[in-house]
UniProtKB/TrEMBL annotation:
The keyword Cell membrane applies. PANTHER family: INNER MEMBRANE ABC TRANSPORTER, INNER MEMBRANE ABC TRANSPORTER PERMEASE PROTEIN YEJB. The chain crosses the membrane at residues 9-30, 131-150, 162-188, 218-241, 276-303, 323-349. Residues 127-342 form the ABC transmembrane type-1 domain. It comes from Salipiger profundus. The keyword Transmembrane applies. This is Microcin C transport system permease protein. Belongs to the binding-protein-dependent transport system permease family. It is a multi-pass membrane protein. SUPFAM superfamilies: MetI-like. GO terms for cellular component: plasma membrane. Keywords: Cell inner membrane, Cell membrane, Membrane, Transmembrane, Transmembrane helix, Transport.
Length: 360
């Protein structure tokens, strides 16, 4: 197992390199870079011309601006040259790319173009919101899905299985953003009840609250976003649990256990549970990352949560390349590490699994 883990860890390096090469190359062809963003602001606000020409800026990576685009707007060439120097776009793309890689090897992700803060500090500042959303959504999905999936497997073919399957299919078919908007309309003062807050993770007076009130306030704010992001994962996990249990119930060792006179509960939870739950429990890290990455952008935007998803979206719109590349690098690293953790979880749940023999 040690050799397998070592190979997976070594594979992280070329994978991250490939991710950065592809994204860096794509950025070179995206119009409207950070220089164009500043030029647009300068043309719209002539009195800030001097501020942009003399301001300091430090670049970590990214694509360059277009001289033809800038010249068409009639701005002085000296001003454009000063901007390019400040952002580092006066250097060839290949040199910028290798500089970025060297900085990333030292965990130096640079500073945001438009915020006076380093990328790593910005990510650490936003990460608790996304982790809260992803962790609670995953935990609630497991707490609901596992008992429901087991019940559906035991009651397979009955009316309970039929109507719960219908409800699950409907839940899975509803887009997460549409369900989030529905929750806002119904319970956040949209048109009906003002039960939950409309935005944010805590109240404005959170610091002045007692510890019990802080906990209550936190869950009060997180309730609707978590519910909106849980619905799709809940449906998938329930059906996965049911099918996993159905496969195990039909195996010979279950028939033998029943023939020995064991109670149905003992057979189900003493013999079937461990084997059936292998794929469900071991998949927990992957499910969490799926919720963490895929649902964070839409849910955070709708509920005005200042997390990583919203940060990435705003950085892409503003062409804040250090933030874009830094978050991509960190997200890619987290995803690869979680893949290794998932494999280790499989072995922990069932020691009979040997990835080294399978590779051989």
């Amino acid at each position: 197992m040690g050799a397998y883990i070592l190979r997976r860890l070594l594979l992280i390096i070329p994978t991250l390199l490939g991710i950065m090469i592809i994204n860096f190359t794509l950025v070179q062809f995206v119009p409207g870079g950070p220089i164009e963003q500043i030029i647009a602001q300068v043309e719209g606000q002539g009195d800030v011309f001097e501020g942009f020409a003399g301001g300091g800026g430090e670049v970590a990576s990214g694509g360059g601006g277009s001289d033809e685009y800038a010249g068409a707007r009639g701005l002085p060439p000296d001003f454009i040259a000063e901007l390019e120097k400040e952002f580092g776009f006066d250097k060839p793309p290949l040199e910028r790319f290798f500089t970025m890689l060297w900085n990333y090897m030292r965990l130096d992700f640079g500073e945001s173009y438009f915020r006076s803060i380093s990328v790593i500090d910005l990510v650490l500042e936003k990460m608790p919101v996304s982790i809260s959303l992803g962790l609670w959504s995953t935990l609630i999905a497991y707490v609901i899905s596992i008992p429901l999936g087991i019940r559906k497997a035991v009651k397979d073919g009955t009316s309970f299985d039929t109507w719960t399957s219908g409800a699950i299919i409907v839940a899975y078919a509803i887009p997460g953003f549409l369900f989030a908007i529905l929750l806002l309309v119904l319970f956040a003062g949209g048109s009906y009840w003002q039960i939950f807050p409309l935005r944010g993770l805590t109240s404005d007076n959170w610091e002045a609250l007692s510890w019990p009130m802080k906990i209550a306030d936190y869950f009060w704010h997180i309730a609707l976003p978590v519910l909106a992001s849980t619905i799709a994962a809940f449906a998938t996990l329930t059906l996965l649990t049911k099918n996993s249990f159905l496969d195990e119930i039909k195996k010979h060792y279950v028939i033998t256990a029943r023939a020995k006179g064991l109670t149905e509960r003992r057979v189900l939870y003493g013999h079937v549970f461990r084997n059936a739950m292998l794929i469900v429990i071991a998949g927990f890290p992957a499910v969490f990352i799926g919720v963490f990455f895929s649902g964070s952008l839409i849910i955070e935007t709708i509920f005005s949560l200042d997390g990583l998803g919203r940060l990435g979206f705003e950085a892409a719109v503003a062409r804040d390349y250090p933030v874009i590349f830094g978050t991509l690098f960190i997200f890619g690293l987290i995803g690869l590490v979680v893949g290794i953790i998932s494999d280790l979880t499989y072995v922990l749940v069932d020691p009979r699994i040997d990835f080294e023999k399978r590779e051989g």
